[in-house]
Structures are given as C-alpha cells and as structure tokens.
Amino acid sequence: MYARLTSALALACLISGASLAAGSGITDPQIAHIAYTAGVIDIEAAKQALKISKDKDVIAFANDMLRDHEAVNKQALDLVKKLNVKPEDNDTSRALTKAATQEREKLAKLSGTDFDKAYVANEVAYHKQVNGALETLLIPSAKNAELKDLLETGLKLFQGHQQHAEHVAAMMK
Amino acid sequence: MISKLSLGALCGLVLILAGPPVRAETIRVTVEKLVFSPAEISAVVGDVIEWQNKDVMAHTATAKDGFDVVIPPGKTATLTVTRAGTFDYYCRFHPNMKARLQVR
Ligand SMILES: [Cu+2]
Fold this sequence. Notes:
The complex is a heterodimer of chains A (173) and B (104).
Chain A: H1 2-22, H2 28-52, H3 56-83, H4 91-108, H5 112-141, H6 145-172
Helix pairs in contact in A: 1-4, 1-5, 2-3, 2-4, 2-5, 3-6, 5-6
Chain B: H1 2-18, E1 26-32, E2 35-37, E3 40-43, E4 48-53, E5 59-63, E6 67-71, E7 76-80, E8 85-90, E9 98-103
Parallel strand pairs in B: 1-4, 3-9
Antiparallel strand pairs in B: 1-2, 4-7, 5-6, 8-9
The complex binds copper (II) ion.
C-alpha cells in the first residue's frame, strides 16, 4: 500500500514537475500525445487484468476500460488527423509511460485477489491522476477549441471510470 | 418480456372497455459527451423512453430496482414505462452520468 501510494505521488510530482518545466508553453501536439498516451496506458493495464484476473467484476471492468479507451483514442486520432496536428512525444508522456511500465511489472508478480485488489486500486489512483492533469494542465493549456472539447469529454469519461473503479473496489472489500 | 405482455393485455382490455386507447408518447433523451439531456423527464405509464447515444462509447440507463437499458454507441435504445414512480437513473459504466425519470 505504501509503495503504491509513493509511486502515485511520484507520478503526480512528475506530471506537475513536467508542467512546471514546460511552463504554459505546452503545445497542442504535446497535449494530444499525453492524452493519447494516458488512454494507451489504461488499455495496457486492462489487457494485463484480462490475462491474470479470474474475478467476473474485475474482468467486466477491464473490458469496459478497454472498449472505452480504444473508442476515445480512435476519436482522438481522427481529430488530430482532421486538425493536421502531429502528436509529439514529450517528458510528461515519457514519465507516464515509465511509471505505468513499472506498475505493470509490479502487478505481474501478483495473482488472485492480490492482483485484483492492486489492479483496481491502481485504476482508482491512475484515473484520479489523469483527471488532475486534465483539469490543471491539459484543458487550460489546449489552444484548439475542438481539442479542448475532446479533452473535456475525456475528463468526464475518466471521472466516470474513477467512480466505476471505486465501486468495484468497494465491492471487493 | 412479462411486463410487455401484461401491458399488451392491459391495452387490449382498455380497447374493449373504453374504445381506442390513448396513444403512448415517445419521449426522447439524447446522450452526448457523457450527459443525458434533458436530465429530467416525465412520462405516464405506457409511454416509451428513447435514448439516442451520440457518443463513441456505450452507456446504460440504469435505475436500481427499476430498469437496466444498454445504449450502444451511435444507436438508440428504448424502454416502455410500466409503473409509476420517481426513477433516479445513472450509467453503470460511468456512474457520474445521472438523470431522472418521473412516471405518473
Ligand atoms: Cu456512460
């Protein structure tokens, strides 16, 4: 639990640190890349859960995450194509990916209810973090109105997933 | 299924007793960007609620002890109202999506 909390904190610091470093200079191509990466990370986490978990509620939740994030990322790709924006890799995206890879490695060592609990707890923490980044950094910095609009819908989606994850976590207790 | 049948039977009965039944209304709710709109609707027993999902992800209209309707992305889904009451409903996939159905 402590390790999970510290890794969540570290990630929050990475996100805000990167945002400080970038100042308000974060660009739409970078924002698009971060939002897309955030979706990919949750898709990877869901795929891992589908491989390891035997719990029907956890599997249903993971399938929901997979379906929603694939649909929204497809929508995001369509939008950047339409806007002629090329998503650009950046420190925040790299930090997110690195932290997620470490989390998956940690989860890979678990099985049964240990895995289920850790996966769902991480889903709550992860969606919370992304919500924070969307609210304080990505949405306010986005310049293109359509990108901003997609991010706002993304925020509602991630908030919905966070509540859904909290519900699954409560049922497991 | 059972409720649909009994509704059918009820309509038949009304037809026999009172001539042509009052036509059921269809009440439309749009689901877009994870928002039900209008957020509050009222209906009478026999009316049909039709949700139109304009999002790329599936939603549900779910009321505890009431109904559970899955609304696929880009599609519509309907519910025939069978009993009176106030139904606070939400989306099972995104519980931050909330709305209310009042049935007289
Ligand atoms: Cu929903």
